[in-house]
């Protein structure tokens, strides 16, 4: 599947920072990770640090799937609000899912420090009402978050205008959020793992996968075999081909990045993350080199050709969306792209074993919160493989659908 098109900013900025070999001989490991994006990298990080013998393969160059197209907002909120999710799975389970995402932000910051990545920035997040009718929903959402210990404030129209310079009926200000560069972080993590002795191969297509008793046997397109005790599927939206039930709806999203602004150009207060209650929602962030990223205008996935033809139209609409919110801030799009992503009914990822594929584990961080979900998946998979207790795995299991 062609996951992206256009010129993702992370790829343009970082290029191909490292070279990885393709597999040209038979190989064996306790665990093989299929997928060299942020999900695979984080899984590798946790397994390597737990002393697990593993290797990683990707059919593309490392990071060139959905990861390089990520706008890399780090939020504990998922695509289904806490109040809505509580109605689906119970408040205690919903709060647990949100708390795990909240904790994941700090853990990602720690991993960046450990691996030498410098992309992470701690931020606040502003979730504003796209319409007056959304005020009631925001008040309910604020109340349940506040009652469960999240550091939030409810803002009225006058507060938003005075502090952030745009007009909206209401908003929730969250103290816990961040931003990174998923593509750069993926490479930093894998370089760290390589130094610890892990093998990483890209441009290595797994042509056949056979789940046998006690092992998984794989054949590459070049005819080499790989034998593993367990196979971790960390190849994102392409993994749906291995699941025989519908677990995700594929969509495509669009993003644009402005030209670099001058140091004297004023932006909004605190350069916080901004997103809204619209469906699909609009979101925006800044970069360290003073650019603005705007994303949204999602559509149901039909085919890559139609998706790609919409890049110019969607980019123009996103630019208008930004100008409507901040007419005084100059914005000229320099880079534009589209990418495929998936959303689940409850907004939660699928993590862990899949009964119909023995010795398999899945790290499928679907949704707008894919990076924090990938961190949670990496922890759960590590604990399953090392036979440590994992109290939260049922929240994200395939058995829930």
The CATH topology of the largest domain is FAD/NAD(P)-binding domain
Q: Total domains, how many? A: 2
Strand tally = 18
- H-E order: EHEHEEHHEHEHEHEEEEEEEEHHEEEH
Any low-confidence stretches, pLDDT <50, length ≥5? none
Helix content: 25-40%
**Class of the largest domain in CATH?**
Alpha Beta
C-alpha Rg (nearest Å)? 21 Å
Give the structural class: alpha+beta
- End-to-end Cα distance, whole Å, is 25 Å
Overall outline: globular
Topology:
Layout: E1 4-6, H1 9-14, E2 27-34, H2 38-49, E3 54-57, E4 73-75, H3 82-89, H4 91-115, E5 121-128, H5 135-147, E6 152-156, H6 157-164, E7 170-179, H7 182-195, E8 199-201, E9 206-212, E10 215-220, E11 225-233, E12 249-258, E13 273-276, E14 283-286, E15 292-300, H8 304-309, H9 311-325, E16 333-343, E17 350-352, E18 360-364, H10 370-385
Parallel strand pairs: 2-3, 2-11, 3-8, 5-13, 11-18
Antiparallel strand pairs: 1-16, 4-7, 5-7, 6-7, 9-10, 10-11, 12-15, 12-16, 13-14, 14-15, 17-18
Helix pairs in contact: 2-7, 2-10, 3-4, 4-10
Structure, described:
This protein is α+β, with helices and mostly antiparallel strands. The protein folds into two domains: 185 residues, 3-Layer(bba) Sandwich (FAD/NAD(P)-binding domain); 142 residues, 2-Layer Sandwich (D-Amino Acid Oxidase, Chain A, domain 2), CATH 3.30.9.10. Helices cover 31% and strands 28% of the residues. It has ten helices and 18 strands. The strands form two sheets. Strands 1, 4, 5, 6, 7, 12, 13, 14, 15 and 16 form a ten-stranded mixed sheet that branches. Strands 2, 3, 8, 9, 10, 11, 17 and 18 form an eight-stranded mixed sheet that branches. A hairpin with a 5-residue loop joins strand 14 and strand 15. It is globular, with a radius of gyration of 21 Å.
